[in-house]
Every structure is written in structure tokens, then in C-alpha cells.
Design goal:
The chain is mainly alpha-helical. The chain is built from 4 helices and no strands.
Length: about 140
């Protein structure tokens, strides 16, 4: 079964764009977060490519439209991959980051307060202090 050349490039393009989309979703995320202003520029650029591609399609310039749509999809996939970068440190530590060996004292991370010791220390302090009006 031979595929005609008119359809072969469409199949290759579809596989390449599908690979770009899958790579943006499943490839290892960038180490650092990309600035959101730059991400907005990428998305705006992709939208402009889509708009120009639509205009080219409506004016019957199909090859140009395909190139513009493919470029827009590629830029969108790149923006999606870059948006997955994370600097917050909220995830699991990476291999070169230090790991905290001590777990927090309580599940919520707030240490317990020993009220008995506090009361005992407060009573000792109150006994040692002289009353306000005494010499």
C-alpha cells in the first residue's frame, strides 16, 4: 500500500505536530519557571499565527495557511511546555537540592507548647519578683 505524495506530507506533518503536543505534555519540565510576561507573548504570537493562517486559508493560499497553522501549534506547544517550569520548591526535591531530614513535630508543622513547664516557670518568676508598691 503506497501513500500518494499529496497525502504523505500531511501524515508526516500530523505526526510531527502530535509529537510536539505530546512532548509539551510529557517531556521533563524546565528547571526554572519562564516569566509569565514572556509566556503571554508566546501565546499572543501563536494567536497571531492562527489569525494570519485563517486569513491565508480564506484567500486560498493553502500552503501558506498550513505553514502558519503548524507554526502556531508548535509555538503553543512550546508555551505549554515552558509554563510547566517551577521555581516555587513546592514539589519533591531534586537530586542536587538538600533534603530536610527532620519531620515537623506535628502534622500541621506547629510545635507543641508545654503548658505545664510554662506554668511552673511563670510561678517561679512571680515568686522572685517583688510586688509593684514595695521598696
Amino acid at each position: 500500500m503506497l501513500v500518494p505524495p499529496e497525502a504523505a506530507w500531511k501524515i508526516v506533518l500530523a505526526i510531527a505536530l502530535g509529537g510536539a503536543i505530546l512532548a509539551s505534555a510529557y517531556a521533563k519540565a524546565p528547571r526554572r519557571a519562564f516569566p509569565s510576561s514572556e509566556l503571554r507573548r508566546l501565546v499572543l504570537g501563536a494567536l497571531v499565527l492562527y489569525a494570519v493562517g485563517l486569513t491565508s486559508s480564506l484567500t486560498h493560499h493553502s500552503v501558506l495557511a498550513v505553514v502558519l497553522f503548524a507554526s502556531g501549534i508548535s509555538v503553543s506547544a512550546l508555551a505549554a511546555w515552558l509554563s510547566r517550569g517551577n521555581d516555587s520548591g513546592g514539589g519533591p526535591p531534586r537530586g542536587d537540592e538538600p533534603v530536610d531530614e527532620q519531620p515537623p513535630p506535628d502534622p500541621d508543622g506547629v510545635p507543641r507548647f508545654d503548658w505545664a513547664t510554662f506554668e511552673r516557670d511563670f510561678q517561679d518568676y512571680a515568686r522572685r519578683r517583688s510586688p509593684v508598691g514595695s521598696p
